[in-house]
Amino acid sequence: MHIFSPLLLILTMMLAEATVLPGPLQVANTFSHIANELGHISLGNCSLAHACLPLKDTKVALPDPSSHLTLKYITVGRGIQNYSCPSIHASSRNTTTPKAIGAAATLFDASCVASTSMNLLHELPAIAARTPLGSLAFMAEMLSSTTNSSYLIVGEHYFDAAGDPFFNLKLSGHDDWMVAAKIASVSAPTRVYTTKTASKDVAWLSLKRKDGQGIKEVYRVMTFEGGAPSTCAGLNDTVIVDYAAEYWFYG
């Protein structure tokens, strides 16, 4: 079973709705590549046995997953990073950096894409981040043609009342969940931005379990946007920045 033309139309619409687009030639080149990759995806095998976590893409590498763990899920997360700016005099905001106060994201199943084309997988965060939050149905429809699972939305990610990262994968019909603690953080690879106001890519992370079931380690990689503005100048007390990333779950 292969991807059909309606999915290509959806991808076109997603790119057309992008809030930040590269030059026309780059858009055309990206779409051509995605269309070509989608045309070769088959649903016959969604094994993650040969999926390779892209730890060498950053200047400083995150630690490897624990050797006794197995890769269970690869998802694309689409959501927001939240920051706060203190209520201080406007002049002080020019030198004050927004403080991270949490995040929230919907996690989409990307395991079948990963099993077939790692290159295509790594392009999905950029597509997801450029898709307005109100159009998340596009993401679900896009991935619906690339998975054997009936659970296109695997779960959700947010911060709990204690301020800890929480991953809930029960929407996929499993009992997996995890309250996480950060093991390591590294800067995302340098990317060429298309506008002077584009946000930075949020850091790549390695997380371990503080509490939970089924999941013991999570990696956030291939991030697209979501980084904090450089200062609080001209911003509200609460700052919301769209982002997308790959989340790799080990258990």
UniProtKB/TrEMBL annotation:
Pfam families noted in UniProt: DUF3455 (PF11937)
Domain of life of the native organism: Eukaryota
Key word Metal-binding present: no
Leader sequence segment: 1-18
Name used for this protein in its record: Malate dehydrogenase
PANTHER family: CONSERVED FUNGAL PROTEIN (AFU_ORTHOLOGUE AFUA_1G14230), MALATE DEHYDROGENASE (AFU_ORTHOLOGUE AFUA_2G13800)
Record carries keyword Signal: yes
Keywords (A to Z) from UniProt: Signal
InterPro entries: DUF3455
